[in-house]
Amino acid sequence: MSTGGTPSSMSVSMVKILLLAPTFFIFFPSVVSQTIPSSDGGQGQWRLLHANVGISAMHMQLMHDNKVVIFDRTDFGPSNISLPGGRCRIDPSDEALKIDCTAHSILYDIITDTYRPLMVLTDTWCSSGAVLPNGTLVQTGGFHDGDNVTRMYTSCPDDICDWVEYPNYLSRRRWYATNQILPDGRIIIIGGRREFSYEFFPRPSPRRHTFQLRLLIETREGNVENNLYPYVHLLPDGNLFIFANTRSILFDYNQNRVVREFPRIPGGDPRNYPSTGSSVLLPLDENEHSVDPEVLVCGGAPRGAYQQALRGTYVRAISTCGRLRITDQNASWVMETMPIPRVMGDMLLLPTGDVIIINGGQLGTAGWELGRQAATRPVMYHPSNPSDQRFSVMEPSSRPRMYHSAAILLTDGRVLVGGGNPHIYYNFSDVVYPTDLSLETFSPPYLSTQYASIRPVILSVDDTVSPGQRFLLSFSVGEYIAGSVLSVRIVAPSFTTHSYSMNQRMVVLRIDEIIDNETSSSSYSLSVVGPSSAQIAPPGYYLLYVVHSGIPSSGVWVRLQ
């Protein structure tokens, strides 16, 4: 791990090189492994990968080399995994451990099921992140000495890469902020504790710039706040949807202007940290006459739940979801009820376009020791089903995943789940929910072996995709049903922390032509059209899936120019 140059050394010109210069790109094979993990249960299947990886997975990001960057915080004392080569982190400002020879970040390889320690120097507690178009993870903010630091991790083939830090790069402290990748490859960083502004990475000039966002001022509830980690989604018109507490706006970040304010979500209860729900932008379908974005917000905790939990009373979490069609002239929230109330639940887009709601609790709120009754059963939300058939309950995990747990989608369609530490320090005994250092996966029902005959296998695909341009893809399938149940989808992997998966999005691409292979009865070629604009899908690395009759292939990596 190293410290980068002075803040001025990360000029806009330097970052443009990182974004654009082809010599910086590291390409990996598109098709890495087509081995499909099995899920023979109709309600999915859990599998423990590692009982102890040394750290609790507070933050996770899947990289385009099929490795996952995982990190916790640094200010609680030693972790359970040592730094290699006798290295130690020396931090005179750390209140817990000024010389720390343990790691607080790891790199997990999903192909080999192995991991190695990474080294962070400053505190990453409750930070945020996004991936640049060249595949570099930009991670921002944190606590104490890390609150205005930018960190970068770039994958490498020889497994010697590590974090590089740029102290004092951010204009304001960003603790509990949200990051969103933009159509031009920049990252917008919004909010943070007692920060009511946004800024950009890279900076437009060596001088620091921030822009006030009144929504964050107006939605803060005293010391409880209830508007941290605001939900931010990039929309097809290039504006941002921003949700904080109970309110949401359509925001033009270029002009620092609120284009539109939407109705408050019904019920009057907050949905952001610490009354932590979650949110996704539902799949954008380029096959429709117009791409009409819809946002889904689920779960959270009732107003006042945080104060009651501090007094030892843990109230029932919110059981409703709100769905908003943003382009409707009179847009209004359509409310639905989950089968299980949930606070601190993660929401992930699956290759099928369904949403999995996983982790969290049924009582209390986010915060130290403030959650109870773990919600161990994931719930599937099927957005295309009739309104009374959208939820289904999955197989429970044997491990509670409460505050500071995380989940991400993996290349093969499994969900990686880790973390859970509702304590100030690591605490493994005499507590309701011990610190959890394990990693496990949940295999949704579509991975069941009973679907092997209709599961597509991608044989080849172009490594790079250009907006609006056709590209070729070939796949095989044992039992081909019909082109009407065939789709090609790209998914941007999320940066997940605190029950919010930043930057995740799915685009259903337009298929121009389906071509039978004359030499094989089980293989087919597709002519597919890339996303129509960078507003629909910003440049960068995406997982591409072929979905046939509701059953997805394993994903392959493509780079959107």
UniProtKB/TrEMBL annotation:
Signal found in the keyword field: yes
InterPro entries linked: Glyoxal_oxidase_N (IPR009880), GO-like_E_set (IPR015202)
Protein name: Glyoxal oxidase-related protein
Position of the signal peptide: 1-33
Residues covered by the Glyoxal oxidase N-terminal domain: 58-446
Alphabetically ordered keywords of this record: Signal
Signal keyword on record: yes
Domain Galactose oxidase-like Early set: 455-559
Transmembrane segments: none
Organism: Populus tomentosa (Chinese white poplar)
Pfam families: Glyoxal_oxid_N (PF07250), GO-like_E_set (PF09118)
